[in-house]
Every structure is written in C-alpha cells, then in structure tokens.
Amino acid sequence: xxxxxxxxxxxxxxxxxxxxxxxxxxxxxxxxxxxxxxxxxxxxxxxxxxxxxxxxxxxxxxxxxxxxxxxxxxxxxxxxxxxxxxxxxxxxxxxxxxxxxxxxxxxxxxxxxx
Length: 114
Prior knowledge:
Blueprint: H1 2-14, H2 23-30, H3 38-50, H4 56-59, H5 61-69, H6 81-95, H7 100-111
C-alpha cells in the first residue's frame, strides 16, 4: 500500500540517524494476512492523521516506527508476537545506530500494543 510505504519513508527520514530502507522486508512481513496486514497499518495511519492535534508521544517519529513494526511478527497461536516484533524493530534500528534510549522507547511503545 502506497500510503503505508510513504508514511514509513517519511518517518525514517525524521529520525536523526540514517535508517536503512527496510520497506521490502516490512511489506513482506505484513503481506498475505487476513488481519494485521498493510490495510490494518493504513487504517491506523488514517486514525493518526485524523487527530486534530497529536499528543507528544504520537507526534514522535519513534511512535511512527513503532506503529509500522507493532505487528511485524504475527502468529495467531502465539502470545509473544509483540515481544518478537519489538525485537525485530530493535535489531533493525540498533544496526542503524539509533541511541539506546530511543530503542528502549520504541520497544515500550510496541509492547504497549499487547
């Protein structure tokens, strides 16, 4: 979905470090699911954009990155999807040099979706 890809690219460019383009991996992770798919992300992005004024956490590019990665790993029969999604996000952003404090915050945001 073009809208989700544009949101991802905009978000990664807002971070202060150079984030590798991992859109292909993200798109593949969300593809072919009946739910927790790219349409789900597009709906969430739509709700975010419809808010008249975003509270501070939601205005952060970390929030946007957590939104993108929150269902990266999704196995309906497992109870650790959020933790595994946070792990993937943390690994990707760590490889890009995101500071530990920001990695921790992004993981917290993903885990809050549990």
